[in-house]
Amino acid sequence: MPRPRLEVPVLIVGAGPAGLAAALALSRYGVEYLLVERHPGTAHTPRAHIINQRTVEIFRHLGIEDRFLAASTPQEMMRNNLWVTSVAGREVARSETWGTSDRRAADYRAASPSPMANCPQTVLEPLLLESALEAGGDLRFQHEFQSFSQDDEGVTSVVRDRVTGEEFTVASRFLLGGDGARSRVLGQAGLTVEGPSGLAHAANIWFRADLTRYLAHRPGVLTWNVMPGPLPPLRLGTLICHRPFTEFVLVTMYDPAEVDLTALSEDDMVRLVRTAVGDDAVPVEIKGVAGWQVNAQVAPRYSAGRVFCMGDAVHRHPPTNGLGLNMSIADAYNLAWKLALVLDGRAGPRLLDSYSIERQPVGAQGVDRAITSLQELGEIDAALGFTPGQSAEDGWATLEQLDEPGPAGEERRRALRAAVEITEYQFNAHGVELGYRYGGPAIVVDTTPGPPPARDPQLYYQATSRPGARVPHARLERDRTTLSTLDLVDGLGFALLTGVGGEPWADAAADIARRTGVPIAVHVIGAPGPGALTDPYGEWAAVREIEPTGCVLVRPDRHVAWRAVRFDADRAGGLAAAVEAVLALDRAAPDPAPAHLPEPARR
């Protein structure tokens, strides 16, 4: 008998961060979808947890920022990075991370209306799921994607209900593969990832223990073990604090040729945790264990025809820098508005080509940065004088040089300070998180020369209104209410930001909005009158990089599509051409704008 058939505009495979974010965004844009997930529920171990400012902004735009912040650990509690021989033992080094230090906090506050936070997937995924369900989404767990075929009209997929064993077909216009590092969608679409896998193996031991007396005076997320001596088969690595100061994950590195994780007993795990803590009597409750491996892989292309892959399906790397989950959410957010506009006919299908063009370079840079940061962590051991095969006695001797007066002690302390400073590229890489600039056909080229970076582009975000960049945050005020420039975009509409004397842009915007059906909200910043939008601190004037009569055109995802330095009749016509180019409504594809990714300063 023929299988039952379901028709839906979009089929999403996978209920991880990318799939759930795509589901919620499509719901907000009024797009029907079906999400299928083979597992019975969301993440069963904490996994990723660092949530950077760009992701919290996306939650803001999706209407869940307050709910998210209420469920997460605030940025201030992420402050300290520790290197210790054990949690109760000697502290070897400490640094301030994630924009919490006095010298970095102002940078982070000035860059975004949204703070960073720490939130494990065991908390984040249920929150996204609940939000998507409340928005009317169709999400089905224990439903496994089997296969698909596609043609010029759409995609036909086979899905199996893992409870009943029954199969049914899903006819959709588009298929989204957010099904993780073992993505079935990716392979069947003919897409691949490039780069090495299995560079190292690790196990996450999830546990509860009250470590308040050891950590409350120096709160943070990451504590690194630097115990001297030969490395045991299960090597103590990183302690991750998920709930201050009672819920943690202990990351242990191991060689699968020497250790069978399935044979690891609860007593073994308790013993490892107590060794890392340095307290043989601390009560420990084991909640779970999960193995993973270090990869350095990225897909050269994220899409094939009507199939689009996102998240771990297309970029796989170690958790250093905390980029993976954040890139996954941004993948979904970049794709969702484009799908929505194409599905209702307000944008041409070529708009979807820009998804891979825009997101793939960001994913590739994220993989490279994460692997580089992992390698740079080895400089801490080198600075402490640790060498492979070194005895515990010799390791403690080099470690104790940190306390010695004279040249040897001073050199050891200098080397350690330098090694800790290098980790800034992992723990305060603000430019990597916010400073990427899209290129491609949905961005209109700006040929004016840009200013050179004032500071290291990977460490420091430099606000710019250049096309492709996320529109700079500036605090504005309307009717005694503070809002951000990022708040001026609504739904699937565009926003045009101009200043005093830029009012004539409104006529041009209204005309192109009538022709395309895509709203363009014109915001005149600084003009007087009822409901005036003011720039009370001059922040927009400081970052707009255009004259007051010029304009910045912002896409639904808050990235700049086009800008004009000043208003005149020719540039007013340029607005129409820019909108048509971004929406892929023009007859000929425009020259693609180049992407721009922050590069580290030479060290």
| Main sheet specs | 8 strands, mixed
Quaternary form? single chain
Cα end-to-end separation: 67 Å
Rg, rounded, reads 25 Å
Structural category: alpha+beta
Summary, kept brief:
The chain contains 18 helices and 27 strands. Helices cover 31% and strands 24% of the residues.
Question: Strands, helices and their partners?
Answer:
Blueprint (H helix, E strand, L loop, with lengths): L4 E9 L3 H12 L4 E5 L12 E2 L1 H9 L3 H7 L1 E2 L5 E5 L6 E6 L5 H10 L5 E2 L2 H14 L3 E4 L1 E8 L4 E7 L5 E11 L6 H5 L11 E9 L3 H4 L6 E4 L8 E10 L3 E8 L11 H12 L7 E10 L2 E2 L4 E2 L2 E3 L5 E2 L7 H20 L9 H24 L1 H6 L8 H9 L6 H16 L1 H4 L2 H5 L40 E4 L2 E4 L9 E6 L5 H12 L3 E6 L7 E2 L4 H5 L7 E4 L5 E5 L4 H14 L21
Parallel strand pairs: 1-2, 1-11, 2-8, 5-13, 11-19, 23-24
Antiparallel strand pairs: 3-7, 4-7, 5-6, 9-10, 10-11, 12-15, 12-16, 13-14, 14-15, 17-20, 18-19, 21-22, 21-25, 23-26, 26-27
Helix pairs in contact: 1-5, 1-9, 9-10, 16-18
